[in-house]
Write a structure and sequence with these properties.
Elements lengths: L9 E4 L7 E8 L2 E6 L4 E6 L5 E3 L7 E2 L7 E9 L2 E7 L5 E5 L12 H6 L6 H19 L14 H11 L5 E4 L7 H14 L6 E5 L4 H12 L4 E2 L2 H7 L13 H6 L10 E5 H5 L2 H9 L4 E4 L15 H12 L2 E5 L8 H11 L7 H8 L2 H13 L1 H5 L2 H11 L1 H9 L3 H15 L5 E2 L3 H4 L5 E8 L5 H5 L4 H5 L9 H4 L1 H12 L5 E4 L3 H14 L4 E4 L5 H12 L7 E4 L14 E4 L6 H8 L11 E8 L3 H13 L9 H17 L3 H24 L1 H9 L2 H16 L2 H13 L1 E7 L2 E6 L16 E4 L2 H6 L4 E2 L5 H11 L6 E6 L9 E10 L17 E5 L12 H7 L8 H55 L5 H19 L2 E12 L2
Bound molecules: adenosine-5'-triphosphate.
Adenosine-5'-triphosphate binds next to α4.
């Protein structure tokens, strides 16, 4: 730092800090003239003895400029001895701020200047700041960041995916776990991580209309994320523009002036898919609004056609995913409409990896081979690597360099990397995650109940001219009085009366049939029921679902049309009535998945009422004996339909029952063969990519350890004490916080006026939704931490300590430093920094006592100094501490060099792996342009340069004076 006074520099008076920030007016003839605009004072000093301290803000400090909101320093440059800060505002916009224009009444946030100026605070405040700093640095670099706070069970398969996906610079993946295994939760965990890591600010979720509110609620109650639902009504409130004249007075120019992008109004947005994909103007606005992350649920609705006639939904997501860096597509049935649709969705995520359909199909035929190679590497690496044939296969795929380096050093890390490369480049890819019930385990049993009924008169006759779809849905053939004629209706009625305590979900394909049936059962038979179908508004649908979910006074029966078979959570029910069976096996799996999902505590009872001897019965047998879907989720249902679809339809229509029997026998054999093939190939690869149990276990263990520690409870107590909140025990492991009578801030973030009850126990939080789950990531805690660190709260302190081992008059300077890198956020360099703050303790002899004098010990011994004694005390020790500070700063600078070294190494490893992948893809297909590699290299250089700017900023400084 320059000690020469230069006009325009900002300094503060050590004896009179209350004068505010001074500005040097003149520095000549060994004199310095300084004005203090805030106090309207001016002082003249001899330059050599001026009691002034230079005020310099560091990256990350808050600065004030008159008539401008709060700014945060991102960079500083020196010009002719004065500083120009570059500081970002709330919107992330960067402003140049010459130090001359800084507000004169600015508070000092620099710990050193505050200590020297005597602007010190009680040692408990210092302790709170130190604890905050420590925790902030620990959590910022922790691999579990963003996974701790959500109110969810720690399920290994979900945590693994969430951590793995969020660790990528811009995650683009297809989450394709089997129905009900928690894809919404996985997506929520990924969103939560990226938001907390500040790698995403604007998140857009696009979902089928029927799931809009469910997403809204899940994001809020599990992740404390407040999303806003956008629909046409909401957009109109913001954007009054009309593109069609509504009256003869329509003025197009005036209308254009009113144009505003409604999507810029919120950061976290949920949009119903049908609305947005059918509204051209809103789509344009949505694309223009700029997002960091896109999530699309039930992505199998995005239909792709090679000839360009893709569905509007696909086209919309294609447009969005070309613009948005991070994309999550969710579907339990990725191959629902064929393998080409699956390929097209993968291509949306990574066009370089999935350049064309034929190559993708060809690739699939080699999965078994890849799986064998991986098995060789993971089970018998030594033997495999000494087998010439094995090595040749590996070399063909990965090149001789990689093979050689693996043979030279077959360490666990190298083997792991090779397996990952094989999985990514030749296997199912790193874009696709699919966990299955079989791999996760612990799911309830599916129990089929077949209810054979006599077909009503006229049905058989009607079938002779009906299509097969009509035969499967007798309500379409039985005429307007079908409710009376159809024996399934009577069966449902009886079943409900015999099981009055059972919650029953009934799904019927046809919306009209669902409505007729519900009305009939409710009005004529007095059954407490609700109905859920596409003609209801979103609110009406949620009301129906909530009525069904109510355990006390809720409906016994919920009747859904097919839209109720997707995404909804009905696992509190244990009886599903399949009023009809769909021809599409994925649809049936989706239906069963409403009950057979995480949280289901009993058996899943599947009831199929059917007409004996009809197409319904044959289809039931097909699913039971060929697809085996009533026992376990079907993995080959689609493949069977591709192979036997036409034959199946013919068999359903045939009066000869042997036709279906022989078809089922052949299909069952084929299913067995396909399953065997999948087990050895695709499924094994998917399993390997989707969850690595050891890593998952490690992750869970560290989350549990963080959760167990009682430091959070202590920290909240400290917060409450220092900010004047009332803090009271509620019960074991739970507390109540309320605004107190002596709060030091007008309002405390996220603390309701009537207080909040929270528990530190995850299990308790899962069973008691009315109380908050307190973790380091809970908004009240994290905002309080931000409040402490973005101000000068507790940054400088002076205390006395009585220690026999030390001479009275010994001065101990304890400093905490936090790392700051001058780099754009998208480079995400934070994750390469160590998970800690940096602490130093020195004495007047400049001895480094950091290890010998623990922070907790100093806290224990610290005694406050009376305010009236402070000026005298400071006068005595100022000389010594002025000499000690540069030494402690030098130590921090040395430490920063080590940090830079290790961060650079970690960064380089990551980048070189990523570069290798890009190069490998480039050599395999022409869709990766050479320029991409140049851009990648430029980014790497940018990151490396930025890491060199890493500084350790002094964030808190305490002087401890050894007393008698
Ligand atoms: N880790 C968890 N802790 C607590 N509840 C969970 C967890 N994971 C999932 N659930 C619950 O299990 C149910 C299924 O989860 P989710 O809706 O995320 O599954 P999904 O895979 O998206 O389902 P679908 O395939 O039907 O769309 C939901 O009620 C969800 O709240």
């Amino acid at each position: 730092m320059s000690t020469i006074f230069i006009a325009g520099q900002r300094w503060i008076s050590n004896p009179e800090p209350e004068l505010g920030l001074g500005i040097i007016l003149e520095a000549a003839n060994r004199r310095v003239v300084i004005a203090f605009p805030a106090a309207e004072e001016e002082r003249t000093y001899a330059a050599a003895a001026a009691p002034l301290s230079r005020v310099l803000f560091q990256v990350g400090d808050n600065i004030d400029v008159p008539n401008q909101g709060p700014l945060i320093v991102t960079e500083q440059q020196e010009h002719n001895g004065c500083i120009v800060y570059f500081a970002k505002d709330e919107n992330g916009e960067i402003h140049p701020v010459p130090e001359q224009i800084l507000s004169a009444s600015i508070k000092l946030s620099n710990a050193k200047e505050r200590l020297l100026a005597g602007q010190v605070e009680h040692h408990r405040r210092f302790a709170l700041r130190a604890a905050t700093l420590e925790q902030q640095n620990t959590s910022q670099a922790a691999s579990t960041r963003g996974l701790l706070g959500p109110r969810v069970q720690l399920l290994p398969h979900q945590m693994y995916i969430a951590a793995e996906v969020a660790s990528r610079p811009s995650p683009r993946v297809l989450l394709a776990d089997e129905v009900g295994l928690g894809k919404t939760i996985e997506a929520g965990l990924i969103i939560h991580q990226l938001l907390l890591l500040e790698r995403a600010k604007r998140v857009l979720i696009v979902v089928p209309d029927s799931l809009v509110h469910q997403w809204l609620v899940e994001m809020l109650r599990r992740f404390n994320l407040k999303f806003s639902i956008f629909n046409e009504a909401r957009c109109r409130q913001i954007d009054e523009y009309e593109d069609e004249p509504s009256s003869i007075f329509f003025d197009e120019e005036e209308s254009k002036e009113k144009e505003e992008n409604p999507f810029e109004d919120a950061q976290l947005v949920i949009c119903p898919l049908s609305w947005i994909s059918s509204h051209e103007r809103r789509q344009q606005q949505l694309c223009d609004a700029g997002w960091d992350m896109l999530v699309v649920d039930e992505a199998h609705h995005l239909h792709w056609h090679e000839d360009g006639s893709s569905s509007p939904e696909y086209k919309l997501v294609e447009r969005l995913s070309a613009e948005i860096a991070s994309v999550l597509l969710l579907t339990a049935t990725p191959e629902n409409a064929g393998i080409d649709g699956h390929f097209a969705r993968l291509r949306l995520l990574d066009p370089a990896r999935y350049p064309d359909l034929d190559a993708f199909l060809e690739e699939q035929s080699h999965y078994e081979e890849i799986s064998e190679l991986i098995q060789g590497l993971s089970d018998t690496a030594d033997a495999a690597l000494s087998d010439a044939e094995f090595c040749k296969r590996l070399e063909t795929l990965l090149g001789s360099d990689q093979l050689k380096s693996l043979q030279k050093n077959p360490s666990a890390e190298q083997l792991d990397k090779t397996i990952r490369d094989l999985l990514d480049r030749f296997g199912t890819g790193r874009m696709l995650y699919r966990n299955t019930r079989a791999s996760v385990g612990g799911f309830p049993k599916r129990v089929l109940h077949e209810h054979a009924l006599n077909a009503p008169a006229g049905y058989e006759q009607a079938c002779t001219t009906a299509s097969i779809e009509e035969s499967l849905h007798p309500e379409q053939l039985l005429g307007p009085a079908w409710l009376k004629a159809d024996p399934r209706v009577e069966w449902v009625e009886k079943f409900l009366l015999q099981n009055p305590d059972a919650k029953v979900l009934l799904i019927a394909a046809d919306s009209n049939a669902a409505q007729d049936l519900e009305l009939h059962l409710r009005l004529r038979r007095g059954i407490a029921s609700a109905v859920f179908h596409e003609d209801l508004s979103l609110i009406e649908r949620d009301r129906a679902a909530a009525y069904f979910a109510d355990p006390e006074d809720g409906a016994q029966l919920l009747i859904c049309s097919e839209i109720g078979s997707e995404g909804r959570n009905f696992q509190f029910a244990q009886h599903l009535v399949l009023f009809d069976l769909p021809l599409n096996p994925d649809l049936l799996e989706q239906r069963i998945g409403r009950l057979d999902r995480i949280g289901q505590l009993g058996d899943v009872n599947l009831h199929v009422p059917y007409y004996a001897g009809s197409a319904q019965e044959k289809l039931l047998h097909w699913y039971r004996d060929a697809v085996n879907i009533f026992e376990q989720p079907c993995t080959v249902g689609n493949a069977l339909i591709i192979a036997f679809g036409e034959e199946l339809k013919a068999a359903l229509a045939s009066s000869d029952t042997t036709v279906i029997d022989s078809l089922i026998a052949r299909a069952a054999a084929k299913a067995e063969e396909l399953q065997e093939h999948l087990r050895k190939g695709r499924n094994r690869l998917l399993e390997l990519n989707s969850c690595q149990p050891q890593r998952a276990a490690k992750l869970i263990a560290s989350l549990e350890a963080e959760q167990r520690s009682d430091t959070l409870a202590d920290y909240i107590e400290m917060l409450a004490e220092q900010f004047g909140l009332d803090h009271e025990d509620h019960s074991d492991n739970a507390i109540i916080l309320r605004p107190g009578d002596h709060m030091i801030t007008e309002a405390f973030p996220h603390l309701p006026e009537d207080g909040i009850t929270g528990t530190f126990d995850r299990e308790r939080a899962l069973s008691r939704e009315d109380i908050a789950y307190f973790s380091w990531e809970y908004p009240l805690v994290s905002s309080a931490m931000d409040m402490v660190m973005s101000s000068d709260f507790g940054s400088a302190s002076i205390c006395t300590i009585a220690v026999k081992a030390l001479k009275p008059g010994t001065l101990l300077l304890e400093a905490f430093f936090s790392p700051a890198v001058q780099a754009p956020a998208w480079l995400q360099l934070q994750r390469y920094l160590p998970a800690q703050s940096f602490r130093l303790v020195t004495d007047q002899q400049n001895r480094n006592l950091s290890n010998a004098v623990a922070h907790s010990k100093l806290n224990q011994l610290a005694q406050g100094v009376k305010k009236t004694l402070m000026p005298v005390l400071l006068r005595e020790v100022r000389g010594s501490i002025t000499a000690m500070i540069p030494h402690i700063e030098n130590l921090a600078e040395d430490a920063a060099k080590d940090w830079i070294k290790s961060a650079t190494k970690a960064y380089e490893t990551d980048r070189s792996d990523e570069r290798e992948r890009l190069q490998a893809l480039m050599s395999r297909n022409s869709h990766v342009a050479p320029e991409e590699l140049d851009v990648f290299d430029q980014e790497t250089v940018l990151g490396l340069n930025a890491l060199q700017s890493l500084q350790l900023n002094m964030s808190a400084l305490r002087l401890a004076i050894v007393s008698q």
